[in-house]
Design a protein that fits this description.
The protein is mostly helical and about 140 residues long. The protein has two domains: about 55 residues; about 55 residues, no CATH class. α1 packs antiparallel against α2, α2 crosses α3 and α3 packs parallel to α5. The longest helix has about 45 residues. The protein is elongated. The protein starts with 13 loop residues before the first helix and ends in an 11-residue tail after the last helix.
Length: about 140
């Protein structure tokens, strides 16, 4: 496995991203096409509803998994910050947004206190900007 860094940290799951998403999208489009061909029959409409439900199921399954992952990462990073940041930053740990904490998880322990200070004092909000500031990447291979 290649060493993780900013350029390659996005996780692609081939079966999900390159099979499930296109297959369900194609099924939805095909169902709509068949509904029109069938003269908007009730049976074909049920197929469209089923295809739409499958697309929504796919979207919600991914969204829910990512939401849970972000909650866990947020908790882990708050606990990590409590151990690593100096006393003057301790009261400000609650000011970090979920997106900031999720992005800061890639900073190594030695780099985290300075990065946390930069994020708070520099008013840096985007995960991309925070990840670009990380010098010593701490890989996260256990993502959903």
């Amino acid at each position: 496995m290649a060493e993780q860094n900013l350029a390659n940290h996005v996780r692609w799951v081939p079966g999900y991203h390159f099979f499930v998403i296109p297959a369900l999208g194609l099924n939805f489009g095909w169902s709509i096409y068949r509904w029109k061909l069938a003269g908007y029959s009730l049976d074909a409409f049920i197929s469209v509803l089923t295809a739409a439900a499958l697309v929504l199921l796919m979207v919600y399954a991914r969204t829910f998994a990512l939401a849970v992952q972000n909650r866990v990462v947020r908790l882990e990073e708050r606990m990590r910050l409590e151990k690593l940041v100096p006393e003057d930053l301790q009261p400000r740990i609650g000011e970090f947004t979920c997106d900031q904490l999720v992005a800061m998880r890639f900073a190594c322990d030695a780099e985290l206190p300075a990065l946390a200070r930069k994020v708070l004092t520099g008013n840096i909000h985007t995960g991309k900007a925070i990840k670009q500031m990380v010098e010593n990447w701490r890989a996260d291979y256990l993502r959903a």
